[in-house]
Amino acid sequence: MNTRKSIKKLLLLIPVLLLLFNSCKHEDLEIAKENENFRLASDFIKNNYDMSLFYAAIEKAGMKAQLQGPGPFTVLVPNNLAFQQIGISRPSDFDKMNQDSLKSLVQRHVLNYRLLTRDIPLNGVDIRYLTLAGEELYTTSSNFNPKGFANYQLDLFFNGAAVVKEDVNLANGALHVINKVMKYTPKSTVQDWLAKRPQYSIFVSGLKKFGLWDKLATAGPFTVFAPQNKEFEASNITEASIAALNTKNYNGKRLFGGYVMDKKHFFISDFFAFKFINDETVFIRKVDDDNWLMIMNSASDSFNRLNTLTLNLRTPVDFYTNYNTIYASTPGLSDNLTDNGLVHDVQGLLLLPEQALINNSPNN
Amino acid sequence: MPQSRLKNILLSPIILLLFAAGCSKVEYAKIDDPAYLRVFNNLNYTIGLDNKDEAVPFLTMLIDPEMDKDGIPVKAAVKGDFLDQREPYAPPYPSHIGTGISYKNVEYPGKENVLVGPILNGFDLSSWAQIPSGKHRVVFLFRPVNNVPFFDLDTKLKRSVLIDTTMVLDAKEVYTLHVLQKNFVTKKNGVYLRKENFHKLSLSDSLVYVNFYNMSAKGFVNASKDQKTSYKKSGALYGGIKDEMNIFYSLYTSEKTMKGPVYGYQNILLGKLTRNSEVLEVSPYYNFPLFADGKSNGKFTNIWQRLDLMTPGMDPANNPYEAFQMETDGNWAPVNCMTDGKSQLIGNDNAAQLPNMIVNIHSGVYNPRSFSTVNTIEIVNGNVYLTTVQRKYAPPIY
Q1: Residues of B with CB below 8 A from A128's CB?
Q2: Beta strand pairing status for B89-90 and B383-390?
Q3: Threshold 0.90, pTM exceeds
Q4: Which domain holds residue B84?
Q5: Exposure string (b/e) for B95-115, b if CB count within 10 Å is 16 or more?
Q6: B177 and B226 inside one domain
Q7: Which regions of chain A are under pLDDT 50?
Q8: Which residues of A touch B52 (CB under 8 A)?
Q9: Based on the domain organization, do B190 and B266 belong to the same domain?
């Protein structure tokens, strides 16, 4: 009896011993290790060909050492295409710029903390983040469409500039690549901005002629869609021909007022953000102090994150007529932020003077 | 013998442990002389392109907050966080707690784990929070839409005050507090505190009671319809109703159709509804019989309620509008209180949808049994809300 019991115990012991031996064997597990050697901000930008112009700007502005520092920073890097759109195609072009304004341009693209896309609230519109330049960025993310099927996406905009590559890790922060140089003119108004740029002189003379100019220096905010002189000249409109117009015969609220939106500050990106968040595909608003409507449509090339806004004027509903469509399609030329609003460059003219003649258009 | 002694030695520490555990004192939260408070966020606008600078209507309520030297709240006696836009139906029991997975709270107390009201004069106040009575400073703040508790937010996000006010809450009184848009043009916001009286009235068990409020913002009904596009769900009501309206009610028995009218209860004038978002007074309760349908057995009834809000001079019998018309210029807004409030009447119907006012539930041996309720219908801009209060009822017997 006893011997049998002990044999049983011995037999049981064998698998237990086996288990013990087995567990003693260690094989080295190979786990893909995350890269812990992230680069510092300046180094990363220097080593990236598509950021060579921004790197040149950092160097010229004397910001290189600071961005090698402990941080943390979030760097919003405009790619080279973004600089080319505003006429900077080689590093030497920065020499033409004022040193101080170049420095604040670079500082405007750096936040003094680490901001990843996951830190930005879902569908947040115009969330402000402070930059090194002491200004606040308007950040909009449209990630979630409550009604749609494919309701998640990543669409992030800083001051209207679309993020084309997000959440790049740096040893001293994070980096996002944007498709546009963020432009902000501190301590200026929409009026100052337009007055300083001779390529908009015909547009400015029209605003002055029809009494729309003075309000652009007030609090606003305003959103102005500004056609350049070449757009007017293509339709044989010059400063002289505008000066010759008799204001009594033309409806200035449509002819030039159509380009100006009171009490609104729209980035071009807002039209895309709300298209996704709220299914607002078309934005219709009345031309200020007039019964005509302004129709704004947006189309986006999601591959290149290129957004185009189209605008046209329309007579009131029921038996309406659509007029010329104009475009804001070059990211580099839109979203010029000032203290009382934004200016967007547009291609084309909303109305020709003869279309704004009083008593000549339907639905007056 | 030694074995049993060993057993005793082993057992004694267990008994000692039990004693030790039994000594811990449980502190029950208690509020002396409480007032009962229920809070709704009636800011029902949607942020779109046209109003993108408006604050997102997502709030934090702080009662008796402590501010630091910069005026930033650091502590509060009562905190109602994540206060989202209210739902069309506020049920008679706290249905939000335990069922939702979202951090958003559609009413206060809602999901908050706080002391709630008792059964007062037969009415179940478990959707009302207990608040110490007396004078309180109440602050509502806009907060970002995320699940970070208010006091953990960044300092700059704790500054956007909607309203900072004081209110006096009397002990054992029932209050509903509404955050409202007071003016649609200037976008001025405010609060509206109503001292309810349903628990003091001698209300019958066999009648269903309902009262009405139009707490719409000034100027909403007259505003251009382009500015009201976010209210399309409410049928003809989306554009608001005129400041003076008459209320008519009709009862039907048939499911989701108007084919089974309860005769004698068609297009009956209940009373007048005046827009009022300033003066705090309880509207009179109107009633209709729970068992208005003569064919019901006195235990269960399937009637549902149709309300027609019509401008004075108009009557459902000579209604110039058709049931499919959404544009009634604020002259006519029908409301169906039917089933769960999510199903449309069959056919082209421009009514807003609300759940049935009558609660049908298993009670005693009856499954279902119909219970009369006390209801409040509130119209805020283009939306309509139903709050139902119910008496305590017998538990089901299976």
Answers
A1: 156
A2: parallel
A3: no
A4: 28-200
A5: ebbeeeeeebbbbbbbbbebb
A6: no
A7: 361, 363-364
A8: 125-126, 266, 270, 274
A9: no
